[in-house]
Design brief:
The chain is an alpha/beta fold. It folds into 4 domains: 197 residues, 3-Layer(aba) Sandwich (Rossmann fold); 45 residues, no CATH class; 213 residues, P-loop containing nucleotide triphosphate hydrolases (Rossmann fold), CATH 3.40.50.300; 82 residues, Helix Hairpins (Orthogonal Bundle). The protein starts with 7 loop residues before the first strand and ends with a helix. Strand 8 and strand 9 form a beta hairpin. The protein has 20 helices and 20 strands. It has a 6-stranded mixed beta sheet, sandwiched between helices. A 6-stranded mixed beta sheet has the order 14-17-18-12-19-20, sandwiched between helices. About 3% of the residues have low confidence.
Length: 598
């Protein structure tokens, strides 16, 4: 039986980004209803390759084949949500209006909502809704689980399983990839290697491929050594100076240099737990927390002991970060008590990266007191050498932190957190924007860490491999603590994250006279409604202001050309970010209050 032609394919595609050769002969073919992933280190060009497949970028050389009439939908890593309303955005790709609205509602979004002031999770869900509404034959997804909580990721997996489209996805979420893929493309050494199996088989296969590559490199190095000895030391060679042999030796050296450039240089992270803390790290008794009428944490009691590996999970906005700050004594609970142990040294890498000095350069962040050294676990080390351990180039050291990418900021945050010994390590969404090689290294380090670990994450595989205990928040104030990781939370607490069933059918019919006062109260007060409308107008303006400031700060020459303006812009950036955060929190409280009253 003859094999059907692919629905979308690339043949010998080559592309250079300036002097950097991204692709040197990429072959990739997607069959109808394929379930494939594209994996590789940061910087190998995965997102660029996805855009070539979508027809948005023309390669320098090579061919792209697409079956006639096939529709492609691309969800980029950083979606740009435009239009007056979310329904306008979701229908802009050609979907019927009713299909766009239904898709948005299935992702928990109001089609009539404006497109400004969206959170990261809302932006991601809107982009996914638009793609599904278009009902494409090929669906290209770039980091689709970024900013999504675990329950939304699970729902996305189920939806992809039902889809008739051929799917190619870029993701660092191992659990997600293992559940949805049957084919893997590994972008390595500027080419794409194919594994006809799901991602669960990728680690073993890629390790064997890397071992074979290392053996090829070793043999080539030995061959160059022998040929070099023969060429320069042989009396005959000295007399004849065979030009053909010289050219062959030069070609071998160029080949070795190309192979050496493709060898992955891992991060050199290390973790030092320092002096041991007391046996008790934190004791929590009956703590609760609310914001306005919204209850984040109902009375909760737990105890964290030295060496525990605690994971905290739950939907976006459930209060995970708030709980962490309560555990660390940074936020006071409404009720209950917190008792911290003795001898605690805490390192905290926060999700919002608020602890990064955004007005400083990378060098100044690593060495805030000046000079060219940083104390790393009690020993002086040159700033540039320590930066290289976290894959930063020399030229990046004088760039402002505001110009770094999300992955680079996350690596810098880890560099700062791990520089000092700490017997309590708090990581809030540490997997964001990191590639799998870095995640593997981080996971190995944390597995050997002798201190106490508090981990907030939506990465189920990461949690299952590390956590000895998991606290789950359902977003309605309820909390359960379960020994083990995410798998144990789900198996031992079935239905915990499900929304409560409506009791309206069992309720008696309302008396219109008796319920008249309640009917009048079933909406926001004039003051709250006015404040809500003010915030809805203010948030887009703040978002626009932040975008304008960040665009100015991305100028790499600004700091050296006009340091005064650079400091003013960074101060303004921090101030407006704080205003936006406050406005969004207040809007969330009022919006949920309005929805509950309705």
């Amino acid at each position: 039986m003859s094999r059907q032609p692919p629905i979308l394919a690339l043949k010998d595609v080559r592309l250079a980004d300036g002097a950097v050769q991204l692709f040197a002969g990429v072959d990739l073919a997607l069959d109808a209803r394929a379930r494939a992933c594209l994996v590789g280190r940061n910087g190998t060009g995965k997102s660029t390759l996805l855009r070539i497949l979508a027809g948005l970028i023309e390669p320098d050389e090579g061919q792209r084949f697409l079956q006639p009439g096939v529709r492609i939908a691309l969800v980029p890593q950083e979606p740009d949500i435009t239009g007056e309303t979310l329904a306008d955005f979701a229908a802009a790709g050609g979907a019927e209006r009713h299909e766009a609205e239904a898709a948005l509602e299935s992702f928990g979004l109001d089609p009539a909502r404006g497109t400004r002031g969206l959170s990261g999770g809302e932006t991601r869900r809107a982009a996914l809704a638009r793609a599904f509404a278009e009902d494409p034959e090929v669906l290209l997804l770039d980091e689709p689980t970024n900013h999504l909580d675990i329950t939304t990721i699970t729902a996305l997996e189920e939806r992809l399983a039902r889809s008739r489209a051929a799917i190619l996805v870029i993701s660092h979420d191992r659990a997600f990839l293992s559940r949805i893929t049957k084919t893997c493309f590994w972008l390595e050494a500027r080419r794409a290697r194919r594994l006809d199996a799901g991602f669960s088989k990728f680690d073993e296969w890629s390790r064997k491929q890397a071992e074979e590559d290392a053996e090829v490199f070793r043999r080539l190095t030995k061959a160059i050594e022998r040929e070099t000895y023969t060429f320069y030391r042989s009396i005959t060679a000295q007399r004849t100076r065979n030009e053909g042999r010289a050219r062959a030796l030069s070609a071998m050296r160029l080949q070795r240099a190309a192979l050496a450039a493709d060898i992955n240089r891992p991060m050199a992270m290390t973790i030092d737990a320092g002096e041991s803390s007391g046996k008790l790290v934190c004791e929590v008794k009956g703590v609760s927390k609310s914001f306005g009428e919204r209850v984040l944490i109902k009375p909760f009691t737990t105890r964290i002991l030295r060496g525990d590996r605690l994971a905290i999970v739950g939907p976006n906005g459930a209060g995970k970060t708030t709980l962490v700050k309560i555990l660390l004594g940074e936020t006071a609970p409404d009720t209950g008590s917190i008792k911290l142990g003795v001898g605690l040294t805490i390192a905290y890498a926060d999700q919002a990266r608020d602890r990064l000095p955004t007005g400083a350069t990378l060098w100044e962040a690593l060495s805030p007191d000046g000079g060219d050294q940083i104390i790393v676990r009690g020993q002086p080390k040159h700033v540039s050498a320590y930066a290289r351990d976290f894959l930063f180039h020399e030229k990046q050291l004088r760039q402002p932190i505001a110009s770094l990418s999300g992955g680079e900021r996350n690596r810098l945050l880890l560099a700062l957190a791990l520089a000092k010994p700490a017997n309590v390590l708090v990581l809030d969404e540490p997997t964001n924007d990191l590639d799998m090689d870095t995640l593997d290294l981080l996971e190995d380090l944390l597995a050997d860490y002798e201190g106490t670990l508090i981990l907030v994450s939506h990465d189920r595989d990461f949690i299952d491999r590390l956590a000895t205990s998991t606290i789950a928040l359902d977003g309605r104030g309820n909390i359960v603590e379960t020994p083990g990781g995410w798998a144990e939370v789900i198996s031992q607490n079935p239905g915990f994250f499900d929304a409560p069933q409506s009791s309206q059918k069992a309720a008696p019919k309302p008396d219109p006279v008796k319920n008249e006062p309640m009917a009048r109260a079933a909406k926001l007060s004039y003051k709250d409604q006015h404040r809500l409308e003010t915030l809805e107008a203010q948030i887009p303006k703040l978002t626009t202001a932040i975008a304008s400031l960040e665009a100015a700060l991305h100028d790499p020459e600004l700091y050296t050309r006009d340091p005064t303006r650079f400091r003013r812009l960074t101060d303004d950036h921090a101030r407006v970010l704080a205003e936006l955060s406050t406005a969004e929190e207040e809007w969330l409280v009022l919006a949920e209050r309005k929805e509950n009253l309705a």
